[in-house]
Amino acid sequence: MSTVDSAGSSSPDPTAATGTARVKRGMAEMLKGGVIMDVVTPEQAKIAEDAGAVAVMALERVPADIRAQGGVARMSDPDMIDGIIEAVSIPVMAKARIGHFAEAQVLQAIGVDYIDESEVLTPADEAHHIDKWKFTVPFVCGATNLGEALRRLGEGAAMIRSKGEAGTGNVVEATRHMRQIRGEIARLATLPADELFAAAKDLRAPYEIVAEVAAAGRLPVVLFTAGGIATPADAAMMMQLGADGVFVGSGIFKSGDPAKRAAAIVKATTFHDDPEMVAKVSRGLGEPMVGINLDDLPDGQHYASRGW
Amino acid sequence: MPYSQAPLIGVLALQGDVREHVRALDEAGARATLVRRPDELESVDGLVIPGGESTTLWRLATAFDMMEPLRKMLSTGLPAFGSCAGMIMLADRLVDGVPGQQTFGGIDMTVRRNAFGRQVDSFESDISLTSMAGPPLRAVFIRAPWVEQAGDEVEILGADERAGRIVAVRQGPLLATSFHPELTSDPRIHELFVDIVKGST
Q1: SS3 of B114, please?
Q2: Catalytic option among A24, A32, A46, A95
Q3: Residue A6 pLDDT more than 80?
Q4: Which residues of A touch B98 (CB under 8 A)?
């Protein structure tokens, strides 16, 4: 992978390195306090950029449509992703199926800025997630609990998002997962060192990462939230629950006034602890996406249970 | 120096890697406070503009009436340090921004956004800065900008080894880097900025 414009005056730099953990994790640090929006066309990507999104997630169908239409959900068409990369100057993410390392290779070759190994797509491997250490491009992965988050870190993920239940417009699962992860980290941080070995066994996660989280009292990577966020207040709640930022999928472009709602969610994320500001930006947004009660989801439609 | 006499440095907290700058300022002997509203600017001795997405910073600064107060304070001597997106915000002129994108300005330079390429091109490397003692800095460049042109008043502190591009500058009390010293444990850049702030108060 070429690294910089070689038209400059100097010779190759032996100290330079791409794709290091610091470079991958650092990219996610720059997204903090921001909103990453699902988009399916270049026009939507422009709307997201104009609304203040820190990045867009390029995909063929938003989760709500994947639910409605069914079938196997795969990586998007490279032409479609290219169209979005051309349309905006903010970072572009794209989704690969769980375990589908060849889709991830294609996404890296296209030049996407982050890969989401996502349960929203149909899993390609029921035993193994992608070995993410092998890639220059960084990965974000979903998690419902701390053990799942730490297993993904063990595989090389550089950013974690709570899974929530994508495409429902219902924030209850995102809340559950954020509280779960936060609670488990807090508990881990109270354990004496000699109990961390058993904790690692219970979490089914690498001991070294468990010890690192216990010592720091937080994940060594950025933790975003995802799945069901549909309103400014949803985003504000997730930020107050400890999220570093927010993914919004169907919630924007399945609503009545996407541009206005997108900008409002961006502002509510920054001023998440200021109820008057959240109230101000929540006015006059038009219809939110309709949403689904999770009890009404048929078996096999709970995306959060995909991955392990 | 007693803690209460340490300079109070604001970190612009609209979006970006605010926490890392707060930690780095703390280690460099300053008190850090978050700044999101115009009235929160009044008490600070200096300001850090963090890494993040410059278009988002610009839009939020516009929406929350931060552009004009900050322009005024930067043009009348408020010390500031910007890394990456923060460097963009301190540039008088911007190339490859989105249509209409504004900066706070203050440093007489032209900065090219995303100049080093996409994330797959992001890198870290050693870099030596003029007037900085000790071993080279480990510099982390993430979708980083570079300085395309700098005016006579601008002191060039360092250039990237491979592309030969200017990546660290100072003009009076304003300091900017293409890279992210806040992502490493090397405190020297933040110490330099804290010294600048102390010298100006």
Answers
A1: coil
A2: A95
A3: no
A4: 49, 89
Chain A hits for B60, CB-CB cut-off 8 Å, are 52, 266-267, 270
Q: Report the chain A residue with the minimal C-alpha distance to residue B100.
A: A50
In chain B, what are the domain boundaries?
8-199
Residues 65 to 104 of A: which have CB under 8 A from any B CB?
Answer: 89-91
Kind plus residue range of the DSSP H or E element containing A160: strand A159-162
pLDDT for residue B198: 94
Distances (CA, A) of A10 to A6, B159, B164, B180: 8, 10, 6, 22
pLDDT digits (tens, 9 = 90+) for B91-139: 999 999 999 999 999 999 999 999 999 999 999 999 999 978 899 999 9
Shortest CB distance from B118 goes to which of A52, A111, A263?
A111
b/e sequence A16-47, b meaning 16+ C-beta within 10 Å:
bebbeebbbbbbbbbbbbbbbbbbbebebbbb
Which of B13, B164, B180 shows the shortest C-beta gap to A10?
B164
List pLDDT tens digits, range A33-48: 999 999 999 999 999 9
Which phi and psi (to 5°) does residue A277 adopt? -70, -40
Q: Which two tokens stand for residue A227?
A: 């799945």
Q: What's the CATH architecture for B8-199?
A: 3-Layer(aba) Sandwich (3.40)
| DSSP class of B3 | G
